[in-house]
Amino acid sequence: MRRFVILGHKAAISPEFNLSDLPGSAGRLDVLCRAIGAAFLLSHDLRRDVEVTLLLQDRVQIRLLGKQLRHLNPDERSTAALLKHALEKLGEEEVRSTPGIFIAQRSLPSILDRLWQLQAHSVILHEQGIPIDSFSIPSNPAFFLSDHSDFSADDEKTLSRLPRVSLGSQGLHTSQCITILHYLLDRRDQDESEDLVLCHKVWAETQAKLIQGLLADFHIPSNLVTQVPPSVLPMAINGLAEVQIKVCLRDLARAKEIIADYFQEEPLSESIPE
Ligand SMILES: C[S@@+](CC[C@H](N)C(=O)[O-])C[C@H]1O[C@@H](n2cnc3c(N)ncnc32)[C@H](O)[C@@H]1O
User: Fold this and answer.
1) Domain limits at 252?
2) 217, exposed or middle or buried, with CB in 10 Å at 0-12, 13-18, 19+?
3) More confident residue, 42 or 219
4) Mean pLDDT across the chain, nearest whole number?
5) Is the pLDDT of residue 46 over 90?
6) pLDDT tens per residue across span 141-176
7) 268 in a domain, yes or no?
8) What proportion of the chain, given as a percentage, has pLDDT over 90?
């Protein structure tokens, strides 16, 4: 499950706002509606394995659950209408306003507590966090993002123990961050489900390691696979053994180019060195 928690500092907590004035009377509810769209909407489909939790003014929680969600359309106005309808049902206990949308009075510590109980791994998205490329996104992640403004001092205090991750030095919109996170996680899921493919063969482990390092310089991960069963031929002919360099399918063409450029030879050359 991918979770996104979005803190709406000024967003309306009563339903008396004008659907034609989301940035104004609704306190930038347009930002939250765009974030909801980015979290759930695919072209002609919905992501079902997603939960979005909106926290409005640190008092009202609206939870949207992809598995049960109905009536979510790409336009912000109809999303805001779903939130308005939820706010009409607000009480202390959590209630369902429409399929997949639940509302309750909650605060940031209670959201953190629920995520902890669900064994979700909470992470803050922040321009000044550690670069996402140096961070291993945990399984079952819960990403905390702010709305159009920065996290408040109270938010910072409550979230101070969580890792902070950056998507670069440019300040992005909340919805853009969500799209990037989906892209990275989709890519990771795809890599994990696909077998690696053969990119190059060499006849010495040292050469294979050199190529592996070369690919790593270009951020291409690879695996080295030796085809010689050690029990039969411990180190093959003259101390040489065939080593296959395998990469993800999406990296194959680029990896072959890099190897060919480096050695200035055909990448799948299988010749045994003299
Ligand atoms: C529009 S930004 C917040 C406002 C912005 N800091 C400002 O006042 O200029 C919305 C949220 O998206 C996330 N965000 C924006 N840019 C980011 C980046 N480069 N890396 C990680 N998160 C980012 C943060 O959670 C941020 O609070």
Assistant:
1) 197-263
2) exposed
3) 42
4) 91
5) yes
6) 999 999 999 999 999 999 999 999 999 999 999 999
7) no
8) 80
pTM for this prediction = 0.82
Distance 174 CA to ligand 1 centre (A): 6
Cα 48–Cα 15–Cα 154 angle in degrees, nearest 5: 75
Between the CA of 89 and the centroid of ligand 1 the distance, in Å, is: 31
Pocket lining for ligand 1, CB < 6 angstroms? 125-127, 145-146, 148-151, 166-168, 170-174, 177
Q: Which residue from 150, 180, 181 has its CB within 8 A of the most atoms of ligand 1, so it is best to mutate?
A: 150
Domain of 78: which CATH number? 3.40.1280.10
What number does the ligand 1 atom closest to the CA of 170 have?
Answer: 19
pLDDT tens digits along 233-271: 545 555 567 899 999 988 999 999 999 998 885 555 555
Can you tell me which atom of ligand 1 is nearest the CA of 148? 1
Is residue 271 included in any domain, yes or no?
Answer: no
How many whole angstroms from its chain centre is CA 119? 17
CATH assignment of the domain containing 213: 3.30.70
DSSP string, 83-98: HHHHHHT--SS-EEEE
Spatial distance between the Cα atoms of 120 and 194, rounded to a whole number of angstroms: 25
Last residue of a domain, one of 160, 192, 224: 192
Query: Both 25 and 134 in a single domain?
Result: yes
Nearest atom (ligand 1) to Cα of 173 = 1
Q: Whole-angstrom Cα distance, residue 191 to residue 248?
A: 7
Tokens of 3: 């979770």
Looking at the 3D structure of the chain, how many domains does it have?
A: 2
Whether 171 and 144 map to the same domain: the answer is yes
Does 168 share its domain with 149? Answer: yes
| pLDDT, tens digit (0-9, with 9 covering 90-100), for 47-103 | 999 999 999 999 999 999 999 999 999 999 999 999 999 999 998 899 999 999 999
Residue 37 lies in a domain: yes
- Taking the centre of ligand 1 as the mean of its atom positions, its distance from the CA of residue 51, in whole angstroms, is 20
Instruction: State the first-to-last Cα distance of the chain, in angstroms, to the nearest integer.
Output: 54
